[in-house]
Amino acid sequence: MQEPTDVKYYPSDEPIRLGLEHFNRGNYGIAQRYFKDGVEKSPNDVTAWIGLAASYDRIRRFDLADQAYAQAIRLGGETVQILNDQGYSYMLRGNLSAARRKFEKACSLDPGNPVIANNLELLNGSRRFIERPPNNQP
User: Fold this and answer.
1) What pLDDT score was predicted for residue 7?
2) pTM of the entire structure?
């Protein structure tokens, strides 16, 4: 039999709060651990799944990021934030066409969103940087 003093209490938002705090500081590996803890304790928390996916993106674990985004979509649908974050994920991977599709879909849902506009501008700058004329072959 378990005694009441043996039960550990975890505030439900504590791992998510700490994950967000570390993510915003640029401590993505630590943030990932807190978000992972958050989804284990609260598997229906869309914010935790999005934070986990974004953290995985920043530590370049794109395979795990895709799984976390898929779970967030199952729970909350394709929201503007998820589409934007997926676009950023694809941009980090260098898949600029997929990034553009996600950003444009997010923009169609929220045309005045400054974060999406900024990401599209960043994407356009990235595209100009890597595009080469066809005769510039090795």
Assistant:
1) 46
2) 0.82
